[in-house]
Amino acid sequence: MLKRTFLPQLFLVAVIKMSSGATVAQEIITWTPNFRDSDIMEVIRVVQDVTGKTMVVDPRVTGTITVMSNQAVDADSYYDIFLRALDLAGFTAVETEPGLVSILPSQEARSAALPIGQSVQGGRGQNSGYVTETIRLDNIAVNDVLPVLRPLVSQSNGQMSAFPDGNMLLLVDTASNVRRIREVLAQLDQGVAPETEIVSLKFAIATDVVELVREMQQGRRSTPAEEGSVNRLGINADPRTNSVLISGSARQREQLRTLVEQLDRPREQTGNTRVVYLEYANAERLAGVLGQVVENTFNLNQGENSGGNNSSVRQASIEADPDNNALIITADMDIIESLMDVVHRLDIQRAQVLVEAIIVEINDDTGQNLGIQWLFRDDSGAFASSFEAGNNLTQLGQIAEGALNEDREEGLTSLAAGLAATAGQTIGIGRIGSSNDLLALVDMLQATSGANILSTPNILTTDNSEAVITVGENVPFVTGSYTGANSNGNVDNPFQTITRENVGTTLRVTPHVNQGNNVALDINQEISSISQRAGAVDLITNERKIETRVTVADGEIVVLGGLIRDNIIQSESKIPLLGDVPGLGRLFRSNSSSVQKTNLLVFIRPTILRDDLALRGATAEKYQQIRNQQIQQQSQRNILLDSLDMPVLPEWSSQLPTENSNDDTGAERTAGDNNE
Q1: Which Gene3D superfamilies match (predicted)?
Q2: Which residues have a Cβ under 8 Å from the Cβ of 452 and sit 6 or more positions away?
Q3: Which residues contact residue 262 at a Cβ distance below 8 angstroms, ignoring those fewer than 6 apart?
Q4: Among 136, 157, 217, 402, who pairs with 414 as Cys (CB 3.0-4.6 Å)?
Q5: Quick count: other Cβ atoms within 10 Å of Cβ 142?
Q6: What's the burial of 361, exposed, middle or buried (CB within 10 Å: 0-12/13-18/19+)?
């Protein structure tokens, strides 16, 4: 045994390497381990000095160690050699904490506080220490690989356990051996494309079997690891063929196939009742459709098998539960299977269509009027004449009274009233003398009119559903009257019968969404108005109606035009003989002409909304338009309204669905601030 006094002679120290071109290089210190039957406690002290680690030695650690080497190594490699020497001597070093190493017999290492998951991925200096490692498998079952890996574990002190629920391996072994096992597992745990198998059902319904099996699988999963690739069993239903599709490893497919076959058993009774909750379709309407399907199936089978028994089809019952929007189907399994296929195809979300319309009445009215009015007064009387088509003598009298009145204030009042009631431009000349007065008024008028937007309705409806919007009045119309006479010949209890009808704008639209994002629109547009306000008996209504069917692309605008009506009116008023005098006759006549054109145009734009996101976007657009109008009105209000708080809708940003709510919300808020 080597004594401690000889230990300094066992190391070769201080090898200094200088890099070319540098005056000072990094110093690298190396040691050459060379022990021959050295006491293990003395070797532990040397390793402690080299590595700087704190060593806690079990009292049972005794004996000698022999290491022979002529190669200088660094501290990490030196410690690695020491660990291997301990392993050969039946001891092991466990680094429970950084810098704290426990040296104990190898058979006690498994029960010690071993580090978990360290030293396995590589690194120098910890290749032989005992560690505890958990390895999760992704593509193969842990029970399948356990017999293959057991021979690789250290026979003396290594341990390998399986955790099937998590598909994991638990290893207690040296770090180097754990690394070797992990490398083997990396080769074994390779993903393989699973095979698919089809299991046809005779009695059960495929969708029910798949749902039941999936619930059983969910119940078995106690940890998230169970949902890994190795347990990703594929099981799906094919309602068209009433089959179950199974994918996975051969063992997994065999287990599922056995389970499905056990579930595919005939019922003891021939009838069956199924409750189907609908998501989109109307239960009452769909019940009628399914009832017709059953009836047609019965008639078809009766025609093909005139002598056969179709009682199973005849006994099928379909009831609707409006409160729960559900169907209650009672029939044999084959009939239920057929009806369920129809239900799945009809219970789908239908697209919605936003129909925006602008109803415009274009009036191209042009009227011109030119006339002269005369007034003469002397002491014996007065004379007035008007040559205008309207024969505006009332206004002429007021103007004359104001101009010729001796009372100045009263005359100005009458003159202002007459001029205010006269349409167009009025120019007057006059001569007022002591005995006679002369007044002439020239009246000129030109009037034009343009477009008039009657209504801008917006309607939202589902595909193939009619939508109606009405804006107007409910007007009474007399439909009859009754007058009775009593025994005295007097009228007794007279009364009239009155019916009320809507007068205004009515738009009826039924959209039909076709393939290729085209929309067929059944349009019924009606505009009615009352031509004059009289009694209920004398009411006259003007009605303009468009009824058509058009096909429009999604988001495009189509215009529907009405009949253009031209009405030209020309008139001339004059004094006989004087009005025919060339040149001078224009002073004694009045000409009037007017041209009236009326055209009704309806602009339609359909927009298809296939999901909730599109619907909310369209709603947000209209909402923002109203909010912008309120903001504009608030900024343009006059000084009289400054003290009033005009309402403004809040921002829509909090209502919009976004993938990144923080970013989008900020963008919407910024946009709203800019608008303001």
Answers
A1: 3.30.1370.120
A2: 360, 361, 362, 363
A3: none
A4: 402
A5: 21
A6: middle
Q: For residues 262 and 213, what is the distance between their CA atoms, to the nearest angstrom?
A: 12
CA torsion, ordered 392, 396, 399, 402, to nearest 10 deg: -140
pLDDT score at 10: 42
SS3 label, residue 544: strand
Task: Give the count of beta carbons closer than 10 Å to the beta carbon of residue 447.
Answer: 12
Residue type, 263: L
Contacts of 178 (CB under 8 A, 6+ apart): 119, 120, 131, 133, 171
Binned at pLDDT 50, 70 and 90, residue 326 comes out as very high
Mean pLDDT of the region 575-601 = 74
Range 77-81, long-range pairs (CB < 8 A, 24+ positions): 77/124, 77/125, 78/31, 78/33, 78/47, 78/50, 78/51, 79/47, 79/50, 79/51, 79/53, 79/125, 80/124, 80/125, 80/126, 80/127, 80/128, 81/33
What's the pTM value of the predicted model, to 2 decimals?
Answer: 0.43
Helix axes 206-220, 250-263, angle to 10 degrees: 120
Q: How confident is the model at residue 522 (pLDDT cuts 50, 70, 90)?
A: very high
Assign 153 to helix, strand or coil.
Answer: coil
Question: How many angstroms separate the CA atoms of 646 and 422, rounded?
Answer: 40
Q: Look at residue 412 and give its three-state secondary structure.
A: helix
**Listed range (29-43, 294-308, 455-469, 475-489) with the worst mean pLDDT:** 294-308
Contacts of residue 367, Cβ cutoff 8 Å, sequence gap at least 6: 445, 446, 447, 448, 592, 593, 594, 595
How far is 159 from 156, CA to CA, in rounded Å? 9
Cα 164 to its chain centre, rounded Å, is 42
Distance, in Å, from the CA atom of 318 to the CA atom of 391, rounded to the nearest integer, reads 79
SS3 content of the chain, % helix, strand, coil (to 5): 30, 35, 30
Helix (H) or strand (E) holding 206: helix 206-220
Q: d(Cα 488, Cα 394) in Å, to the nearest integer?
A: 50
Asked if 546 and 560 touch (Cβ cutoff 8 Å), the reply is yes
